[in-house]
Amino acid sequence: MQIFLDTANLEEIKKYASYGLLDGVTTNPSLIAKEGVSLEKRIKEICAVVDGPVSAEVLATDYQGMLDEARTYAGWAPNVFVKLPLTMNGIKACRTLTGESIHVNMTLVFSINQAILAAKAGADLVSPFVGRLDDISEDGMSLVRDMVQVFRINSWGAKVLAASIRHPEHVAEAARAGAGIVTIPPAILEQMFVHPLTEKGLAQFLADWEKVKDKQK
Ligand code: E4P
What we know:
The protein contains eleven helices and eight strands. By secondary structure, it is of the alpha/beta class. It has an eight-stranded parallel barrel with strand order 1-2-3-4-5-6-7-8, surrounded by seven helices. α6 links the parallel β5 and β6. The protein starts with a strand and ends in a 5-residue tail after the last helix. It binds erythose-4-phosphate.
């Protein structure tokens, strides 16, 4: 399973890229808006740090507008993946753009039928929003499991990108489900490093060593 960072914050991206942990980055208009920079500037900055796919979402909702924005974004860097919303115009634009070899991440996917349409339209990545389904008392991870199974049975090349991740157990569940990618907010990725027994064990090892270290010389 590949790990993407779900943020537009350049410092966080540089930090986790320096650990060799990042296979890609996802952004969305809300995440870009928080940063107070232009979409173009930030996407170019991220693409200079990360080799893998970097998702940039269109703002247009009409077919032609989506195509125009997508073609512009695709010119910013070779690893830009254009994010399109799962609407009728989004699906139509997906088919056109993948026909031009522009990479597409279909976003805001909340049902297996939407996921099927995205895969059939040639999307490279299809993003089920796990946390937002959980928020309305549905089981977000069961959509991820369904998608993995349906894509495999049909030999569709689209990758399942588990998104809207709210806690570390979502990451573990996505891995168990066989998702190709999980996109993780920085705060959740940070939590994945931590276990109280690791801290306790390390403190004990160092304390024991302290008692005998002079005799080691
Ligand atoms: C995915 O690409 C989206 O950016 C993201 O995962 C949305 O997550 P949220 O529901 O926490 O906003």
